[in-house]
Structures are given as structure tokens and as C-alpha cells.
Design goal:
Elements lengths: L9 H7 L3 H6 L4 H13 L3 H17 L3 H34 L5 H11 L4 H29 L2 E2 L17 E4 L4 H4 E3 L6 E2 L6 E8 L4 E11 L5 H11 L9 E5 L2 E9 L3 E10 L2 E10 L5 H11 L1 E3 L7
Parallel strand pairs: 1-2
Antiparallel strand pairs: 2-6, 3-11, 4-5, 5-6, 6-10, 7-8, 8-9, 9-10
Helix pairs in contact: 1-5, 1-6, 3-4, 3-5, 3-7, 4-5, 4-7
């Protein structure tokens, strides 16, 4: 990197402070590479640091090759941070000079020195801001996911929960053993993650860049006696997220009511049926689906579920 313009400007030197010569001449900053956003906080570049941090969060949430991409970001910061910081420092110095035209150069340099430089306090402020952002994400998005998507057990608490009315939460019942009630067979490509109270399978494939992932589970629900009413309530609850109207499907003498809605990564399908006065729910989740294989297996999954003959009819 070539030296910046006005490199002998004492105000700029005062603002940058520690390692001025290295920052103004070196083409790579090892500390920027190693610490990225933390280095920016240390240099009082809060907005730049928060921007990099948010990018890292987004990559962590949406990309499978998170660590590889993060290394690339660190490398870019290492190469660019000196140049970016010089531009940032010049802008700050010019602003200080414009606001303090009645002051002497000595006084202006003192202001530059106090406003710039490095600070461990600034580093801690930056970390605190990151913690606040993480907390907001957890409360806003993870909380929303729990309330609207996840099938919970009785350890969860929902203040407005009404038995038999879907309001964002479903409770599993463990009063029966699923495999004693149904003949359970899955397509060959699915791996078995079942246990006694729940039938659960998953299929996953990728081409190194994109992926297909689908999983499904069959559970007995508490507090519901009508599969049709449950699916109608759920369809209305997810209206606005690409949900389809309630559908009906009969397979192996099982009368399924079902619907689907869009998610950030694919689709959620919910199939419900009555067996006696109990409601069983089949949840089929699709993510990615680069080759359409998950969607292709959906009907097959439903058609492979049968009621054991020794049990009562629906």
C-alpha cells in the first residue's frame, strides 16, 4: 500500500496514534486478519465492526461452509482494513477541523488524539453491542420459531394456551407406543431416528454447494380430538406464510387432513388423522431440496403408514 495523501498531517497522525507508520504503509494488517470486528472496536470503528459481525451471523445461519467463508472474510479484512481505516480517520479529522475552526492547531490535535487512537473500553463496548444484537435475535427469531413451529413437550409454558385450540404450540403425548399402533415403514433413503413414543426419519444429500434435507415424524398429540379442526386451525394460524387451504387424503383406510406453509428454507407439511378419539400428527419438513427428491418422497411417506389390524378402526 502506498502512503496516503497528506501523510505528514500531524492531526491525522494524532488521530491514528499507535502504529501510525505501519497502518499508513503496510498492505496487510495481521491484527485485522486475526480479530476482524474486535480490532475495529479497538480502533473505535463501531459501525464497521457491527457490520462485519452481522455478516458473520448471517453466514452462520444460512451457510454450511461457515468456517471457510469466515476465513475469507478475515483475509479480506486483513488486506483492506488499513486503507479503510485511513479513509475513516481522514473523514473524522476533517469533521473535527470543520467543527473547531476557532481553535488552534494544538487544540485540534488534542481533540483528534482523544477521539481517535485505540481503547480497550471501546473494545468492551463493541462486545456489549454484539451481545445485545444476539439477545435481540434470540428473543425475536428463536422465540418466534418456538411459538410457531416447534412441537413442544410439557416443559414449555404458553400463557394463552387453550386445550384443543391451536395457538402456536402442540404438546406430544406419551400415553401410547407408536410402533404398537401403526405399521411403520420408511423409504430406503431415509435414516431411522425413531424411539418408542415417536416415529422419526431423515434424508439428507448435497452436491458440495446445495443440499436436500427432509425429515418427518409421527406423534400422538395431547388435548386434541378432531384432526380436521386441528389442521383448519393450523392453516389459519400460518396464513400469510404461503399456507395452502386444508386438503384431504385417504390412504390405507386412514383419512388424513393436511396443509403446508412456506419456511425460509423450504416447506412444512402437517398431516393429521383421528384414531378413536386421539389425534396423530405427521410433520414432513423440507429444506433445500436441490433435486426435488424430498418433495418426490412426500406422498410415498404418507402411503407407507398403516394402522395395525389388531387395533380399533379410525
Amino acid at each position: 500500500m502506498e502512503k496516503v495523501d497528506n501523510i505528514n498531517d500531524n492531526s491525522l497522525k494524532k488521530f491514528i496514534g499507535k502504529n501510525y507508520d505501519k497502518i499508513s504503509t503496510n498492505w496487510f494488517n495481521i491484527f485485522g486478519f486475526l480479530f476482524t470486528n474486535f480490532y475495529m472496536y479497538y480502533r473505535k470503528m463501531y459501525l464497521y465492526g457491527i457490520f462485519v459481525f452481522i455478516i458473520q451471523i448471517m453466514l452462520f445461519i444460512f451457510l454450511r461452509d461457515y468456517y471457510y467463508i469466515t476465513f475469507v472474510i478475515n483475509l479480506l479484512v486483513g488486506f483492506l482494513i488499513n486503507k479503510v481505516y485511513i479513509i475513516y480517520a481522514k473523514r473524522k479529522v476533517n469533521r473535527i477541523k470543520n467543527k473547531n475552526q476557532d481553535k488552534t492547531i494544538v487544540e485540534i490535535n488534542e481533540i483528534c488524539e482523544s477521539k481517535g487512537g485505540t481503547s480497550f473500553i471501546s473494545l468492551f463496548i463493541g462486545i456489549l453491542l454484539e451481545l445485545i444484537i444476539v439477545l435481540i435475535i434470540v428473543v425475536k427469531f428463536l422465540g418466534l420459531s418456538i411459538n410457531k413451529e416447534k412441537v413442544e413437550d410439557k416443559t414449555s409454558y404458553v400463557s394463552d394456551y387453550i386445550p384443543g385450540v391451536f395457538s402456536g404450540i402442540l404438546y406430544n403425548s406419551y400415553d401410547v407406543v407408536i410402533k404398537d399402533e401403526f405399521e411403520l415403514t420408511a423409504p430406503d433413503v431415509f435414516d431411522d431416528y425413531s424411539y418408542e413414543e415417536q416415529f422419526r426419519y431423515q434424508y439428507y444429500t448435497d452436491d458440495g454447494t446445495n443440499f436436500s434435507c427432509c425429515r418427518y415424524s409421527l406423534s400422538l398429540l395431547e388435548d386434541f380430538t378432531s384432526s380436521e379442526n386441528l389442521i383448519r386451525d393450523m392453516s389459519g394460524f400460518y396464513k400469510g406464510r404461503g399456507s395452502i387451504d386444508i386438503q384431504n387424503k385417504v390412504s390405507n383406510d386412514i383419512n388424513w387432513f393436511w396443509f403446508s406453509y412456506d419456511t425460509d428454507l423450504g416447506k412444512n407439511y402437517y398431516y393429521a388423522m383421528n384414531k378413536g378419539n386421539k389425534v396423530y400428527l405427521l410433520n414432513y419438513v423440507i429444506q433445500g431440496d436441490i433435486d426435488g427428491s424430498c418433495e418426490a418422497h412426500r406422498e410415498e411417506v404418507v402411503d407407507l403408514i398403516k394402522i395395525k389390524e389388531k387395533n380399533e378402526e379410525i
